[in-house]
Amino acid sequence: xxxxxxxxxxxxxxxxxxxxxxxxxxxxxxxxxxxxxxxxxxxxxxxxxxxxxxxxxxxxxxxxxxxxxxxxxxxxxxxxxxxxxxxxxxxxxxxxxxxxxxxxxxxxxxxxxxxxxxxxxxxxxxxxxxxxxxxxxxxxxxxxxxxxxxxxxxxxxxxxxxxxxxxxxxxxxxxxxxxxxxxxxxxxxxxxxxxxxxxxxxxxxxxxxxxxxxxxxxxxxxxxxxxxxxxxxxxxxxxxxxxxxxxxxxxxxxxxxxxxxxxxxxxxxxxxxxxxxxxxxxxxxxxxxxxxxxxxxxxxxxxxxxxxxxxxxxxxxxxxxxxxxxxxxxxxxxxxxxxxxxxxxxxxxxxxxxxxxxxxxx
Amino acid sequence: xxxxxxxxxxxxxxxxxxxxxxxxxxxxxxxxxxxxxxxxxxxxxxxxxxxxxxxxxxxxxxxxxxxxxxxxxxxxxxxxxxxxxxxxxxxxxxxxxxxxxxxxxxxxxxxxxxxxxxxxxxxxxxxxxxxxxxxxxxxxxxxxxxxxxxxxxxxxxxxxxxxxxxxxxxxxxxxxxxxxxxxxxxxxxxxxxxxxxxxxxxxxxxxxxxxxxxxxxxxxxxxxxxxxxxxxxxxxxxxxxxxxxxxxxxxxxxxxxxxxxxxxxxxxxxxxxxxxxxxxxxxxxxxxxxxxxxxxxxxxxxxxxxxxxxxxx
Lengths: 362, 313
Description:
The structure holds two protein chains of two kinds.
Chain A: H1 2-16, H2 19-41, E1 47-53, H3 58-68, E2 73-77, H4 80-88, E3 94-98, H5 102-110, E4 117-123, H6 128-146, E5 154-160, H7 168-186, H8 189-197, H9 200-205, H10 211-241, H11 249-273, H12 277-294, H13 306-312, H14 316-329, H15 337-358
Parallel strand pairs in A: 1-2, 1-3, 4-5
Antiparallel strand pairs in A: 3-4
Chain B: E1 13-22, E2 25-35, E3 40-44, H1 51-58, E4 66-71, E5 74-75, H2 80-83, E6 87-90, H3 102-110, H4 119-125, H5 141-152, E7 159-163, H6 171-186, E8 190-195, H7 198-204, E9 207-212, E10 215-220, H8 222-229, E11 233-238, H9 245-249, E12 254-260, E13 263-268, H10 271-284, E14 293-296, H11 299-307
Parallel strand pairs in B: 3-8, 3-9, 6-7, 7-8
Antiparallel strand pairs in B: 1-2, 1-4, 4-5, 9-10, 11-13, 11-14, 12-13
Helix pairs in contact in B: 3-4, 8-11
């Protein structure tokens, strides 16, 4: 146990002193988050809101006019079910439903004889950025309609609704976390091959240290780094860009650990076939870049040609990203969580078997 | 050679008829020797002679294809794990984590053993005091080699393997390391050393096995090896035009004639008679032998005799 802990500490020290490793596994994902976060934040505010008027009275039309007058707001009219469908498919960012009887309720409220009239606002909580903006926008319009009356004549009843499209930065944060977990895992190949090339593995073989302790310390170190990365990435996403997490931390941690192990096993496969440190560098690039672009990290899968979608469905990062989006920000599933877990576990087993067969210690 | 001065009669290392093949290449081809407690034993030979393969089999890093390998009474091929805690190893290349410091590396390796010497003690003993916080990649060749030897001592081993410990070092660093290895002997440790430096073997080793092409050609103390081959001394001078080997060989008391780099070596049983004859021969031709010197045969001569080649790096 003492040997395992010392070796893990030694590995972490070496890692922290390796500028290239630090860049790829820590700075690189953060740069992405800041870059995309600022891209999505900039520009003039524009939003499309579905408008379902089930009341169709002078009062409801007045309210519509108030919303339509807000700069950047575009209203799309339809029935309640139509606007909700439009929202689920991502055509509109929010939906407002004015129920039948709104006009009558407003009149009694203004006469001071009844409860405030209600309109229903449908929002996707996961689209944090736009949801917050739309909420304040709706509240602004409604308080104008109320003319500061106490009690208010109209209130908005906010209903959560899960839509297909996460807003961009919420989609991004778990995706980038998946990407960096992949990098921590497969990049393990490079120091491993370097240690073999420098005969460090051979030197260790001349001590009582067991191979299981050597691999164990490597796994421990990589998982610790992955957890640290998760804290940094989620922290930056939450603080700097207001990403709201759903709080399923146990499930999230499970996928971080499972994903780290699957990609670490893939790293050992690379180390099994790379003879030199340079070869290991090249092979990790060959593995990481296609995965990065085909896994839905940067583009959602349905924006790709169908044959590429087929490729994407074989890639472990697709499932890690999907599982993290589901558990962290309530993203729409590509596959159920148990399928994601099964695919990652399958990759772990297959890579482990290949590495166990072909990995050379000397 | 001293007949086993140590109280324990059992050899520390026993190698009997050991073979190791890589495909067609017979890296080690029927090697046998014993190393006794407290001695510095040297495997001397050119690169590719099979020294490293032999040592790595004894360290439990390679398994032999045949033969008996016993280290500290343990059958290494069967139980490599039993000897690893008891031996110290410095590989041919100092294998050091580049980004860890001297102290960190020593403490890391110490943690692998049930019992280990404090890092500070080793740092002082090996003169690495000023570099203790330096990362190993910043060390000089001599410092790296010393750290590799320190790592071999971290578990306070009875037996230390040093594979080419001074290769690539400058003369000063080499001498510093020689002193250190000599110190190991005085601490009562047994040392198995490989080298391709004649001088190193002569200075450090109690006994030497000369290896080439996977075989041991000769084994004994330096004096034994030399006197077994050369009872005589050598007269050396720059070659003189017109004096061929047959003429020189006919001089009084000359046993053999050898030429090396423009010089002639006459091995002789009677130095005075040979030089007298040589001077008369030269005088008859009106020349004087240049750089005339008398020397005792050395390990180098033995090696040349055995392998037919000199071994310089």
